[in-house]
Design a protein that fits this description.
Elements lengths: L1 H21 L3 H4 E17 L6 E7 L5 E7 L3 H6 L13 E9 L5 E9 L4 E3 L15
Parallel strand pairs: 3-5
Antiparallel strand pairs: 1-2, 1-4, 2-3, 4-5, 5-6
């Protein structure tokens, strides 16, 4: 019985440790001073917790393609902000995403707002560092 309790306790501890490590603070990964606005073509939208991710192919001035990854709200927050899973953001759409680049300079961005070709905008993630609902840039 004691071995079973220790085994269950160890499993719970590992599960909690993994979940805590998977969800990071904004400042741990992103730089609030590195605001970026990136335009490209959506290649994939991943609606998994703890955060949704969007992927863009971005054509550089020399014609080569760069792959970019954007982190957004969790799926339930996207839905509460008016998103529809199979309609709002789809592969093939041309969009512009505003956010904050990763501290390491990689092609990873904490997204805040997406602007579509027709000019309408939608919130995709919280403001830098606070997770709240401040207005996105205009």
């Amino acid at each position: 019985m004691v071995k079973r309790a220790l085994l269950v306790g160890a499993c719970v501890f590992l599960a909690l440790a993994t979940a805590a490590r998977a969800h990071h603070s904004f400042l741990a990964e992103y730089d609030p001073d590195k605001q970026v606005t990136i335009s490209g073509v959506v290649t994939q939208v991943d609606w998994r917790n703890p955060h949704a991710h969007f992927y863009l192919d971005v054509t550089k001035p020399d014609g080569t393609l760069e792959k970019w990854k954007f982190e957004g709200f969790p799926p339930n927050m996207l839905l509460r902000n008016g998103w529809k899973k199979d309609a709002t953001l789809l592969a093939g759409m041309k969009v512009t995403i505003f956010g904050w680049q990763a501290r390491d300079g990689s092609n990873l961005v904490h997204s805040r707002q997406i602007t579509f070709e027709d000019g309408h905008k939608i919130v995709s993630g919280p403001p830098a560092g606070n997770g709240g609902g401040a207005r996105p840039p205009q």
